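Subgroup meeting minutes
Present: P.N., E.W., G.H.
Scribe: E.W.

1. P.N. recapped why we're keeping a running log of single-chain structure predictions: easier to compare across weeks, and new members can see raw inputs and outputs side by side.
2. G.H. added today's entry (264 aa).
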Amino acid sequence: MAIWLQGLLFTLTVVAAACVVIALLQRFAPPTDRAHNNELGTTIFELLTVLYAIVLAFVLITAWENKEEAGQVTYREANELVDVYWAAAALEPDQRDEVREAVRAYTDEVIEEEWPAMRDQEPVSTEGLILLDAMRAPVAGAQTDDDVVQARLTAAEDGVLAITEYRTDRLLQAQRGLSAAMWTVLVPGAILVFAVMLTLGTPTRKYQYVLVGLISGMVALMLFATYQLEYPFSRSGATDPVAYETAVERFDYIDANYAHDELF
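Output recorded in log:
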């Protein structure tokens, strides 16, 4: 189901539930009889809504920024993989092939194994670390007196270290959601705002439906967005492994179009 349709259905469900509560409340206490509550109730309602809106907006913006940052990390990691693949040309043929096979295996591991684990918020295996060691070993053991070749080897070694750091960042971001304490603020806070809103008097019964429906619908929509953005690599707004799939295409292009001598 499309994410916009999920959001619409969730919002409509919350609004419908709010309307049911209003209908039950109006049977015992019509809103036209509660006008005397407005002086104090409006002050409390405005205070609560402002505080709640600030907290909810901050959380939503933070979740969005985390998702954007997670996407950028994937592209940085993928670019480093391509750079290491290029730099491996400075090695002897056997060592070069060993590094490139490890780079390809690592990229496949990310796409086929680590990505589903991140999507399901499960721990990933240590296979990725083993493949990183397989990339690093031939580079670390290479020796040369050629300054150009040494520069490429140094770049390859630095690239492997950068990949390790980006992988760590990616895995941490995959598990970094809102704390239980924050959800304890958001959900009960929404219920509290709704409860205070019900105490206010309105000129007509229909006006109360409109007031409560609009505010509860907006809060529900923002909570839905926060929930979907909470984990960058899972749920409906999940980041895709496009960067790594593009890297694989670049590996193939490098192999098909550039000979060893053309890489220097």
